[in-house]
Amino acid sequence: MTVSEGTAARLGARTADQMSVRRHNLSVVLNHLRVHGGRSRARIAAETGLNKATVSSLVAELLARGLVREGEIERGSVGRPGQTIELDAHNFIALGAEVATDYVSVIAMNLRGEPVSEQRLALDTAGLRAEAVLRRLAGLVDSVIDPLAAQGAVPVGLTLALPGITDPASGLVWDAPNLGWHETAVLEPLRTHLGEPGYPILIENEANAAVLAELDVRGRTSPPDLLLITGATGVGGGIVTGGRLLRGSRGFAGELGHMQVDPAGRRCRCGRVGCFETVVGLGALLRALAPADDPVRDPSIDVVQRLDVVRSRLEAGDPRALAAVEQIGDGLVQGCGSLVNIFNPGMVVLGGYFAALGPWFAPRLRSDLDTEVFAPKSGGCRIELSTLGFSAAVRGGALRATRHVFDDPGLVPYRAEAGHLSGVMS
Q1: How far is Cα 236 from Cα 229, in angstroms, rounded to an integer?
Q2: Most buried among 16, 322, 378, 389, using CB within 10 Å?
Q3: pTM for the full model?
Q4: How many CB atoms lie within 10 A of CB 283?
Q5: Burial zone of 3 (CB within 10 Å; 0-12 exposed, 13-18 middle, 19+ buried)
């Protein structure tokens, strides 16, 4: 190697290192604003440990990329007041989508994590081929994106949440028993139906996506060990230990719905007998609550509307409805007790239909859980209800879709180039 070649190599390595440091610092500033809200440049520097000149340069780049904007003058700060810098809620949107057993849904959220549009379509997905479901879902995605794109918003990514074992690397759903999907390609057909968009598309287990949303809504008040049990036709679980989502060695952890709780019970769609979801899933509740021809068991009716009817019957003291909830409560206490014995979470969050009917489930769980938990006082576990309704998984999906932007803001083109993100965001 000649002297000039060696010098060029050293200069190239130094430049690469400088670029890497800058990308890291851009991420630090953007994430700081996401977590803490609007800040002046001086305050960002003080709180992150970066020097003021560096912060000014980083903010200028984030402004040019349309990721932040200047807000009001910061009040109450020491020294000369400065203009706040905050995440821009208008230029970019992240998308979350979900395929459940009786609906598909889509949400668009801005980079502040605020929903800007959401649609849900009642659909008997278990009765349709995967291709048909994904085509309907793509149409729903377009109906959410198109009005926002007309206003100048650019999608940065989409995460599809599914009730089963997913493989993000291959884009396959290995097993989603309640949908009847086995080793089913999902990503490629969805990309095709969406017209090969430039933004990245990911897949995620729906309970894992939901627990990401639960962590986000609780912020710094969230306990480091948390268990989400979300109820729909199936039952899913999201497990947080030490502040991190537990995925397992292959990403398959959290299939709480398929732990056996009744060896002599009903056969599950997974092929086993007495799975947790056969005992406490929405299907179990509705079978106990109403005959087959009752509208509350009609999957073509939106699940929220059906649960409103169930709630009305409970409030009216309907004996069959109350007996059904009592039956589900028995199974919920038993299953939650086993899970608390294994994971010792600081909090169990009930999501999905468990939260929708929370006034009937939560008191029972709080009063009886101690009888199923070996540790005293339920091991310090408290019971809370999700406030996200049936939007938890799509919200978590949208949050997941923003991750690459916050990890490397330099992937986002400067606004002058940002007519679309084809190639840049992929």
Answers
A1: 6
A2: 378
A3: 0.87
A4: 19
A5: exposed
| pLDDT 10s digits, 172-211 | 999 999 999 999 999 999 999 999 999 999 999 999 999 9
In the sheet where 83-87 sits, what is the strand order? 39-40, 83-87, 68-73
Nearest to 362 by CA among 341, 339, 342, 336: 336
Tens digit of each residue's pLDDT (9 = 90 or more) over 84-110 = 999 998 899 999 999 999 999 999 999
**Shared domain check, 200 and 346:** no
Domain that holds residue 164: 92-209+393-409
- Conformational region of residue 219, where left means phi above 0, alpha means psi within -120 to 50, and beta covers everything else: left
DSSP notation for 141-173: HHHHHHHHHHTT-EEEEEEEEESSEEETTTTEE
- How would you classify the pairing of strands 235-241 and 244-245? antiparallel
Q: How many residues comprise the chain? A: 426
Q: Is 112 left (phi over 0), alpha (psi -120 to 50) or beta?
A: alpha
Which H or E run includes 95?
strand 92-99
108, 93 contact by CB (below 8 A): yes
The answer to whether residue 299 sits within a structural domain is: yes
Whether residue 219 lies inside any domain: the answer is: no
